[in-house]
Write a structure and sequence with these properties.
Shape: elongated
Number of helices: 10
CATH topology of the domain at 34-101: Serine Threonine Protein Phosphatase 5, Tetratricopeptide repeat
Helix content: 55-70%
CATH architecture of the domain at 34-101: Alpha Horseshoe
Largest sheet: none
Length: 191
C-alpha cells in the first residue's frame, strides 16, 4: 500500500490554528522531534509487518491534538481498518481529509472503509475523488475496478480501471491480467 510508505514530512502537516493571542508565537512550524520520527517509522514498520495493534498504539499519541500529524492519522486509520474498527478508521480519515483535502491516499482509504461497510456508491465516489486528485494512483484504479466488478456489476468500469492499473504498474500483475480476460469474456457474453 502506498500509504504505508509515507514519509514523516507528509506527517508534519499544518498545526491546528492557534488561538489569536498565540498566533504570533507559533507562526513558524515546530520541528519534529527525533523520537517522534522514530515512533512514526516504527509504526509504519509494524503496519507493513501486519502488527496492527502495535502500530495503533504507536500512532495514537501522534494522532491526538494538538499534534494530529496527517500521516499518523492516515496510518492509524489503516491500522484501525485492519483491526475491524471501521468507525474509528472513518473518523480518522475524515479528520485527515479536513487537514489535507487534496490527498488522494485518504480518499482511496475512505473508499476501502465504505466498501467494507457496504456503502458501495460512497466507495465509488471516494475512489473517483482519489483519481480526480491523482489519476496516476494505481491502487485507486485497482480498488475502483474491483468495486465495479464484484459489487456494482459495472463491467465497463471494471475493465477500464483494471487496464489503467496495468498501464500504471511497471510489472504486469498476472491476477489483474486474468481479471481483464474474465471481464472481457463476460462483456462479450452479454452481447
Amino acid at each position: 500500500m502506498a500509504a504505508l510508505a509515507l514519509l514523516l514530512t507528509a506527517c508534519a502537516g499544518p498545526a491546528p490554528k492557534p488561538a489569536p493571542e498565540q498566533a504570533e508565537k507559533q507562526a513558524a512550524p515546530q520541528p519534529i522531534a527525533p523520537e517522534t520520527r522514530a515512533t512514526f517509522r516504527q509504526a509504519v514498520a509494524d503496519l507493513q509487518a501486519g502488527h496492527y495493534e502495535a502500530a495503533a498504539r504507536s500512532l495514537e499519541p501522534l494522532s491526538a491534538p494538538p499534534r494530529a500529524y496527517p500521516g499518523a492519522l492516515l496510518n492509524l486509520a489503516i491500522a484501525y481498518r485492519h483491526l475491524d474498527r471501521l468507525d474509528d478508521a472513518e473518523a480518522m480519515l475524515l479528520q485527515v481529509a479536513a487537514l489535507r483535502p487534496a490527498w488522494a491516499a485518504v480518499q482511496n482509504e475512505l473508499g476501502i472503509v465504505h466498501r467494507r461497510r457496504g456503502r458501495f456508491q460512497a466507495a465509488r465516489e471516494a475512489y473517483e475523488k482519489a483519481l480526480a486528485l491523482d489519476d496516476a494512483y494505481a491502487d485507486a484504479h485497482l480498488n475502483l475496478g474491483v468495486l465495479c466488478d464484484l459489487y456494482l456489476r459495472d463491467l465497463a468500469c471494471a475493465l477500464t480501471q483494471y487496464k489503467r492499473y496495468q498501464a500504471l504498474t511497471p510489472e504486469q500483475n498476472q491476477q489483474v491480467k486474468i481479471w481483464i480476460a474474465d471481464v472481457t469474456r463476460r462483456m462479450e457474453d452479454r452481447k
